[in-house]
Design a protein that fits this description.
It contains eleven helices and 16 strands. The chain has a five-stranded mixed sheet. A four-stranded antiparallel sheet has the order 9-10-11-12, covered by helices on one side. It has a four-stranded mixed sheet with strand order 15-14-13-16. The longest helix is centred in the last third of the chain and has 36 residues. By secondary structure, it is α+β, with helices and mostly antiparallel strands.
Length: about 375
């Protein structure tokens, strides 16, 4: 998710949505607390809670853009602090506005939803769609068995095969997208990359630039403002426990585990050089940098498996394990195909082959994910140099 002021145009990209309008159209910028956002949006209650409220840019005719206060700083904190560290305050300032609390919104939840940009991945919509395909396909395959001698049985079997094919194709496509996402970091452009030359099934990167800093972690990007941006990161503090990227005040913008990011003195030197090349000061201390907050993961955590409905900030949103019930659904389709071997041998053979290929496609998505996960866990062990 990105929101940029490009000349006189404000451009916002969210999951599956792009909004663009003239910056002069924005008349007010208001902030709604988490409770207000939950009451207004309903089904976005979980996002409103995680993101400490909602910012709405208003024009003469109503909301033009709405976005949750992104948690760039790992620490919880007062709303004003979150607004500043997320970049919302800086955006409003460039628009010539001040973000004001809104006690009683004059707009409705429906108007906000039309201009809301989020980082949510396929989420529950994808889960419901895949589940509906599996259920309908299995019901059609099941009903085809007792009607195998009738035309209705043939039609039900065809419906089951088509639905199973759509489901298998969708899962295969999503699995391939997931594999590409977790292994393909963004282009460095004018950034300095740390660490250099690290490859693997699930690698993390810090792309350090003067304007922005990108933390890329297995298909997920978290963007921070750099030293040349308002309230951006200016210093990298390297302690024996955590690495803190802080602004001039100093406020935390990113926390990382030192043991994961810099396991050796050579890694510390590489990080120092990368930060200095981007214009960041580097300070190293032998004293623990107690923060009271958990650092973000740098390597894959086997406790957090990819799952449909998870937020991109937690994991690659397009990744998931092939649900076991999809196998059972296609098994019923296969049973319906076997039932046609008696009355219609030619059709039965074709149907069996198609159902078997669909089952093989599902098995491929499941097994390739398991193989990828084993490789990542092995690469994440300390003895592997991660």
């Amino acid at each position: 998710m990105t929101i940029k002021l490009d000349g006189e145009r404000l451009v916002a990209h969210g999951h599956g949505r792009r909004l663009e309008f003239a910056a002069d159209d924005v008349r007010r910028a208001v902030w709604l607390s988490a409770d207000q956002a939950r009451a207004l949006l309903g089904f976005h209650a979980d996002l409103a809670t995680r993101y400490c409220g909602l910012v709405v840019l208003l024009g003469d005719a109503g909301p033009l853009l709405a976005f949750f206060v992104m948690p760039f700083a790992p620490s919880a904190g007062e709303p004003t602090v979150r607004l500043e560290t997320s970049g919302a305050t800086s955006l409003a300032k460039r628009l010539g506005l001040v973000i004001e609390p809104e006690e009683q919104p004059a707009f409705t939840g429906e108007t906000v939803k039309r201009v809301l940009v989020t980082e949510r991945g396929p989420g529950m919509a994808a889960a419901v769609a895949s589940g509906a395909l599996a259920v309908l396909g299995s019901v059609a395959g099941f009903l085809a068995m007792p009607n195998r001698d009738q035309l209705a049985g043939v039609l039900l079997l065809m419906i089951s095969l088509v639905l199973g094919g759509v489901l298998a194709g969708w899962l295969v496509r999503e699995q391939r997208r997931f594999q590409a996402a977790v292994t393909s970091p963004p282009e460095p452009a004018d950034h300095t990359v740390y660490p250099v030359g690290v490859t693997g099934p699930y690698a993390s990167r810090l792309l350090l630039g003067a304007r922005d800093i990108v933390f890329w972690h297995g298909g997920c990007e978290k963007r921070l403002r750099g030293p040349l941006s308002d309230a951006g990161v200016t210093t990298c503090l390297i302690g024996p426990d955590v690495i803190r990227l802080v602004d001039a005040l100093p406020r935390d913008h990113l926390l990382l585990d030192t043991a994961q990011v810099c396991p050796t003195p050579e890694h510390v030197d590489q990080l120092r050089a990368a930060c200095e090349a981007a214009g960041l000061r580097v300070e190293q201390t032998p004293l623990p940098l107690a923060t009271g907050h958990e650092p973000l993961r740098w390597t894959y955590d086997k406790k957090h498996q990819p799952g449909v409905g998870m937020l991109a900030s937690e994991h690659a949103a397009i990744g998931f394990v092939t649900p076991l019930w999809t196998f059972f659904a296609l098994v019923l389709t296969l049973c319906g195909s076997l039932g046609q071997l008696g009355p219609r041998p030619a059709l039965g053979v074709v149907a069996v082959v198609i159902a078997a290929l669909e089952l093989a496609a599902l098995a491929w998505t499941h097994l390739t994910f398991r193989r990828w996960r084993r490789r990542v866990i092995a690469a994440s062990r300390p003895e592997a140099g991660r």
